[in-house]
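Case study 2.
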Amino acid sequence: MSFKQLIFKQKIPASVNEVWEFISSPSNLSKITPAYMGFEITSKTAIDKMYEGMIISYKVSPVSRLKTIWVTEITHIKENEYFVDEQRIGPYAMWHHEHLLEPIENGVLMTDIISYKPPYSFLGSFANWLFIQRKLMGIFKYRFAAVEEIFGVYK
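Prediction:
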């Protein structure tokens, strides 16, 4: 089973506090997720502000309208700096997503580090080559554009 890692960086013309307030609210995740993913938070707990140990459940369609349940845990948080979500139940053999914020001149550098293992051993590696990695790249390309629409274009 192969381990994969993707890194995405985006400069945002806003304060760290503004960006943190947005990304640390699970209810905002649907605003930066493509509609074709059919993303829906199904957790019964409040979703205004995340906290360490928070469990969030979703329904999502990673492949062609096939709904799956995805459960993540917020495992680490340092306010205005970073948080980490890890899959507990879902489509990957392993999923670890770091969200990092760093103040820069006239804004914030947001870095996403996604470390994952596709499911199903060598078949998952083939599926990753065939479509999983491309799908993830598309989701983060969409997210990049959505964040620009919300906060503006960094200049």
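The chain has a mean pLDDT of 89.
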